[in-house]
Structures are given as structure tokens and as C-alpha cells.
Specification:
There is one protein chain. With 512 residues, this protein is of the alpha/beta class. It is built from 22 helices and 18 strands.
Length: 512
């Protein structure tokens, strides 16, 4: 007897329907074909144990299973459940009439219980697109898949429940998630706030400008000056995620298996802070079985690299292309996987190996040339891609001991959101461009035209600091953002001057 069940394979952050064809004939052999990996082949032993513990007998037939299309590699243990259901249906233990209505995914434990799997959100989206009536999966994944409206999601505890449900002997209520209510319930609650930060007004201003235009930022300062503290509070002043951004971000985290238990939707912008010992593959993604890297997990959010010079130089260099293109392509011999990587890079570093170069009170203990050698760990092309470079000095005791709270994140966020609204209106006819940091050279010439004073100021800075053409473009983009924060249609000399001031590391005097 031949039956079909339906599962899915995730490639990138999209899913492809996998048809599992099971044929039962006389004999006792078991064949599994269709490019399965080791984990899929091992499902045979898990299925036998799960069925026996659940009170069923594994069919004594010659079983041939084909996973089509056969040219797509099937990976992981999430095919256990659809394979088991297909085998039982081919043995006439499960009513096959309803199988075509459901997408089925799940890993089997030896006792028959269902274990959670990765990537259920893109699979649920694909199931809805293909017209499936419902999606049967482990209960732990049910809320994650239920954010897809128009698809009935059935969370099950074990294989016995699945078989009883398909045979019409068990009624199971589909999991319901009010996506909009879930989205708006938590997207404004934060653990940190800008009001916790005393002093550092110039750095707060730089963070506000960076958030308003989605610009990359580098903070340079001695230990204990507040670099990490400020970076952790940056998401609190970024505009909230839109529902489409939230779904896209959730897809990436679902594929990577980074969703917290019981979480249905990521409602806050991601903040990723990998350790400086991270490898190339962990940063950009890939591996034998490609997975999203840190730059993709930070999509629509912030990637914070603390102690930037301590990162392996190759790790930093592989980020250069994604910083420009906002996506990463992982190429292998048989396939290519694309992951989105529209993140905001925020980094911090000490000014020198000992940490006290340019410190107002402590002397630098580094030997001659050590500061420049330390700075050279970061390549010029990468620094060029960082729009805002700001120096931080320690906060004096008078500021630290102030009892008066500083400006809260809510107030800063309102200004940032107003600037973003201006940019959305400006780029509404430009596909794929949503902020000033994404402007092309053509758009710069159209929307950033300095007055004569600003032009001369920029010319002098270019000649004196020996800036590159990319740095020139970055200054214009930042000045446009500063003008947007003030609600100005034109870019004046004061906007240009502030943007130039955010190129600290381009100064000839630095490190000499």
C-alpha cells in the first residue's frame, strides 16, 4: 500500500515541501531513500521504540520510504513523526484520508513523546501558502507556529495523540495566538534605560544620531567609562519593530533554534554580543549544515562587538560585505543559502593596550608606537564603514553622584522616531531603502546638498584628515540624519561640523 505524508525542509529562512512516500509490501526489509542524512536514517530505531512503548507494533513488511524531491538533502530528527505516521498509515493503522490536509513535523523520543524542532515558523508560513488545513507538531512549538493566521496548529504531546487525532478518536483544540496582541504586549518593556546613565552627554547624542539614521558606531574610551552600559541601552531608543520585521526576525531565530520556550514572537529588536573568540562561521553563518550566524541573528537589531581589536582580524573582515549589502550568501558545492543581515553595528574598544591613552587623570604606560600598532588591528576599510566614531572620557564623581535622573529613553526614542518618519517619507519610492545609512551615492546627491559654508568645511576636513571617498559619503549621511533630528529640510554647516566631529579616529593626531 502506498501513502503520502507531508513535511518540510528549511533552506535559509524559507521552507520547501517534502513529500514522504511510504510503500508497504511483503517482506521484512526497510529502505529509506531521498538524500537523508545520518539523523534521518537513525529515525528507524526511534520510531520502533516509540511505537512499541505507545502500544503499537512496528509493521512487519518490506517498507520503502522516499523523501521527495530527492535532490534536496534532508537533515535532522524533525522527520521522525511524519515518517512514523506514514509507516502506520501504509500498514492501515492510521486513516490516510486526512493525511493530505496536514503538515506534520516532530522529533520522537524513545517513549513516544514529541520533542521540539527548529524552524517551525517558516514551515507554518509555507503550509499556509500551499493550502494545508493544519499543522501537527510538538506542543512546545505550537505557539511559535500559531502566529500564522489562517492555519490550524495542533500541538501534541506524543505519537499516540497524533494517531488518535488522525483516526478521528481524539478532538484537539488548535492553538490560538492573537498575533497583534502578543506583538504589542511586550515591545515597549526594557530592562535598561538611558536615565541610568550619568553624564556622557556627547556620547548619548552620538547614540541618538546613530539610532535615528541606523548608522554604525564605534566608542573609544578607557576601562570603566561606560561603553558597554551605553551600548546595552541603545535598543531602548530604537524605533519599535514593525509586525513584518518581527515576523522576519522570528523566522531567523526559529531556524537557528534560538526561540525561548513558550515564545511565539520576537517583539523587541535583537541585541547580540558575541565574545571576541568567535569564529568566522559563527559570525556570518554557514557550517556543514548551514545555520544563521550572529550577523543574521542581529537582523533588525544591534550587533555589539566589545573590545573590537581583540577579535580575529579575519572575523572582522568577513563582515565588510554584509555591512554594505545587508545580507549574506553562504555558498556550498551543491547549494547557496541567503540570510538577511540588516544589522546596526555598535562596537567599543580601549584607546591603547593599557587602556589609558588620552585619559585626563592617568598616564598611558604603553611604549612608543604601541598605540598605533593597537589601532592597526582594525583595518581602514572596516573603519570607513563605521559612520560615527566617538571618544568617551570617564565620568567625574560629581556627575556619578547626582541624584537627579537623566533624560529617559522614552524621550530620546520619540525624537528618533520622528526622524525615522521623515526618512520613510523621503525614501517611500526607493525600494529597499528605509534609513539615511542606506542611501546610495545617487540619493546623496539628491538629498544632501550642503550650503557653501558647509561645503568648504567639508573640503577642509577631507584635505586635513586625508579622508577616503567612503568617509566623505558617511559624513554626508550622518549630517542628513542630524538635520532630520532638528526637522530641517536643508543640511547646514553646523550639521556638517557635527558629523565631521564624529570621525575621531580619522584625525592625524590620534595615536601619535
Amino acid at each position: 500500500m502506498l501513502v503520502k505524508t507531508f513535511a518540510a525542509a528549511v533552506q535559509g529562512i524559507s521552507a520547501t515541501i517534502i513529500t514522504i512516500e511510504v510503500s508497504c509490501n511483503k517482506g521484512i526489509q526497510f529502505f529509506l531513500v531521498g538524500l537523508p542524512d545520518v539523523a534521518v536514517r537513525e529515525s528507524h530505531e526511534r520510531i520502533i521504540s516509540a511505537l512499541q512503548v505507545s502500544g503499537y507494533k512496528f509493521p512487519r513488511y518490506r517498507i520503502v520510504i522516499n523523501m521527495a524531491p530527492a535532490d534536496i538533502r534532508k537533515e535532522g530528527s524533525s522527520y521522525d513523526l511524519p515518517l512514523a505516521i506514514g509507516i502506520m498509515a501504509a500498514a492501515e493503522e492510521v486513516d490516510q484520508e486526512r493525511l493530505s490536509e496536514y503538515m506534520i513535523m516532530g522529533e520522537l523520543s524513545l517513549d513516544g513523546s514529541l520533542l521540539p524542532v527548529k524552524g517551525v515558523l517558516p514551515i507554518a508560513v509555507k503550509a499556509k501558502e500551499e493550502g494545508f488545513k493544519g499543522f501537527i507538531l510538538p506542543r512546545q512549538n505550537a505557539r511559535e507556529a500559531a502566529v500564522v493566521s489562517g492555519l490550524r496548529v495542533y500541538g501534541m504531546e506524543n505519537i499516540k495523540e497524533v494517531i488518535s487525532f488522525l483516526n478521528g478518536k481524539l478532538d484537539v483544540d488548535p492553538t490560538f495566538v492573537d498575533t497583534k496582541a502578543e506583538f504589542y504586549a511586550h515591545h515597549d518593556s526594557f530592562e535598561y534605560d538611558f536615565s541610568d546613565v550619568r553624564g556622557q552627554e556627547n556620547v548619548k547624542r552620538a547614540l541618538e544620531v546613530a539610532a535615528a539614521g541606523s548608522h554604525n558606531l564605534l566608542m573609544v574610551g578607557p576601562p570603566g567609562s561606560g561603553k558597554s552600559m551605553l551600548a546595552k541601552r541603545l535598543p531602548t531608543i530604537l524605533p519599535p519593530l514593525t509586525l513584518s520585521e518581527s515576523l522576519e526576525t522570528t523566522k531567523i531565530h526559529s531556524v537557528a533554534g534560538k526561540m525561548s520556550k513558550g515564545t511565539s514572537l520576537i517583539t523587541k529588536r535583537p541585541f547580540r554580543s558575541p565574545h571576541h573568540t568567535i569564529s568566522n562561521v559563527a559570525m556570518v553563518g554557514g557550517g556543514s549544515f548551514p545555520q544563521p550566524g550572529e550577523i543574521s541573528l542581529a537582523h533588525n537589531g544591534v550587533l555589539f562587538l566589545d573590545e573590537l581589536p581583540e577579535f580575529n582580524r579575519n572575523v572582522l573582515e568577513v563582515m565588510r560585505q554584509p555591512l554594505e549589502d545587508r545580507h549574506i550568501s553562504i555558498s556550498r558545492a551543491r547549494f547557496t543559502v541567503d540570510y538577511p543581515a540588516g544589522f546596526m553595528l555598535v562596537s567599543s574598544m580601549n584607546p591603547c593596550p593599557c587602556g589609558y591613552y588620552n585619559h585626563p587623570e592617568r598616564a598611558c604606560l604603553c611604549p612608543p608606537g604601541a598605540v598605533q600598532k593597537y589601532m592597526n588591528r582594525i583595518s581602514g576599510p572596516l573603519l570607513d564603514r563605521i559612520d560615527i566614531q566617538v571618544e568617551i572620557v570617564p565620568v567625574p564623581f560629581e556627575k556619578i553622584s547626582e541624584r537627579r535622573p537623566a533624560e529617559p529613553s522614552v524621550a530620546v526614542r520619540e525624537r528618533v522616531m520622528k526622524a525615522r518618519v521623515i526618512q520613510q517619507e523621503r525614501f517611500k519610492d526607493e525600494g529597499g531603502i528605509y534609513s539615511n545609512a542606506q542611501m546610495t551615492t545617487k540619493l546623496l546627491h539628491r538629498y544632501v546638498v550642503p550650503d557653501s559654508t558647509g561645503f568648504n568645511l567639508l573640503k577642509n576636513a577631507m584635505e586635513r584628515l586625508n579622508l577616503s571617498a567612503r568617509a566623505y559619503d558617511r559624513i554626508l549621511k550622518v549630517s542628513r540624519t542630524i538635520a532630520d533630528l532638528e526637522g530641517s529640510e536643508t543640511v547646514s554647516s553646523q550639521h556638517i561640523a557635527e558629523a565631521i566631529n564624529y570621525r575621531n579616529l580619522d584625525r592625524e593626531s590620534w595615536g601619535t
